[in-house]
Amino acid sequence: MFVSLQFKLELRKEAKEKLIKLMRKQSSAIRVAYNMLKELEKEETKNPHAQIYQRLRQLFPDLPTKYIDSAIYKARRYPTDKPVVFGGKRLFEKLCKNHLTGKAREVLKKQWKELRQGTLISIGSKSDRGNRLTRFEDLNGQLYLRITIGNREFIYAKVLREPSNSKDKWLAFMAMLLESWQTQSYFPYTVELKLKNGEVYGSVSFELPTPEVRYTKEKGVIAIDTNASPIHLAIAEVSKTGELLSYQTINLHHLLGLSQNSKDHQE
Fold it and tell me: How far apart are CA 200 and CA 248, in angstroms?
């Protein structure tokens, strides 16, 4: 089961400026990749990824190669048979209206630019300790995201996220991270960052392992008959050797004549 979890980042001013600059580069690369995908699909090119990759390497020589691969991945997620307005069609249409001026226009323009230029995505892999370019790390007991800015240049952003309740899957993610750090057996996770109102928010997507379901008679068996007559549940418990341990019936006559909602409430 794939899970996507949200979080917020806290960065120093200089680090945030570097991150925003990187976001603009990859956002531009995503737009170029999308436009090339549309053209190459018309030409029925057999290996569009290779052509797009080479073109992006030429246009963005200082963008780490993994960011380029991730930009192509992101571009592929947009349907190429429909026009895409990067930054949002609704905001773009509002900006095109002549009556919008002053502060209201500046606010919308900022929102549109953040949506258009404020994206950074990095696809994870098991061989890269989960994610080569945007990697979660533990620094003095605090969770940080290490973000690769350029060639062997990193910035660290503090992750602001607390589990909302005992069922929050963030707890499972943290447990998986801790185990991977301790055993050096890593799992891939994809990180996508977004700029909103000057703040940086992120999402991490990964596969949550599903425990294997095993049915054995090691501790005996419980059998339930849901069609027992007259209108009751019959429950029997037997040991691993087949001996009857207990037997119980639950009368269901009180459910007769009730609506489905009432029955659900009774359950």
Answer: 57
CA distance 194 to 8: 10
What is the phi/psi pair of residue 44, to 5°?
Answer: 55, 45
DSSP secondary structure code for residue 238 in this structure: E
Residue 134's nearest CA partner among 185, 67, 43 is 67
- Amino acid (one-letter) located at 126: K
3-state class of 141 per DSSP? coil
pLDDT tens track for 147-205: 999 878 999 999 999 999 999 999 999 999 999 999 999 999 999 999 999 999 999 99
- Per-residue tokens: 15: 């680090």
What is the spatial distance between Cα 23 and Cα 25, in angstroms, rounded to a whole number? 5
Q: List alpha helices for 43-168, DSSP H.
A: 48-59, 65-76, 89-95, 102-117
Q: Which residue has the tokens 């019936």?
A: 249
pLDDT at residue 91, rounded to an integer: 64
